[in-house]
Amino acid sequence: MQYFVALKMGEKRVKEAREYLNTLCNDQAMPALALRDNKTNIWEPVGQENLYAVLSDVGGYVLTDTTGYMIVICDKNGISKALVRSLDAERKDAIVARLKADNIGEHTGDVVLPV
After folding, report:
1. d(CA 59, CA 66)
2. 60 CB burial (10 A radius; 0-12, 13-18, 19+)
3. Less Cβ around it within 10 Å: N or C end of the chain?
4. How far apart are alpha carbons 105 and 87 in whole angstroms?
5. pLDDT level of residue 42 (50, 70, 90 thresholds)
6. Residue 28 in contact with residue 82, Cβ under 8 Å?
7. Residue 29 in contact with residue 84, Cβ under 8 Å?
């Protein structure tokens, strides 16, 4: 796939994931990655499926707020599309409950975050 075609597809998927996450977190979601990093010259957009992951510094992720949580919308490969960070346990639990109510599955593997 050509770079710009893959990028446009990925940007659209990131925008949709961010808009969805913003409905759950009072417009605090940030965009993440539009392209998969596959270490080749083949360009692929981030996947279409939406899964969620809850991250904290306990899980080995280095977060800027070590007392909070991050919720990530990612594809099946763990490529992040949108995220919200600095959540306390109560807000995290409320957002996760809404994700589950919307039938969004949980991604339990590694998550790729923007650098």
Report:
1. 11
2. exposed
3. C
4. 20
5. confident
6. no
7. yes
Every domain of the chain and the residues it spans = 3-106
Q: How far apart are CA 57 and CA 31, in angstroms?
A: 20
Q: Tell me the C-alpha to C-alpha distance, in Å, between residue 65 and each of 35, 50, 81, 96.
A: 26, 25, 20, 19
Instruction: Using CB atoms within 10 Å of the CB of residue 107, give its burial: 0 to 12 exposed, 13 to 18 middle, 19+ buried.
Output: buried
pTM (two decimals): 0.89
Nearest C-alpha neighbor of 14 from the set 62, 69, 74, 56: 74
pLDDT tens-digit series, residues 74-111: 999 999 999 998 899 999 999 999 999 999 999 999 99
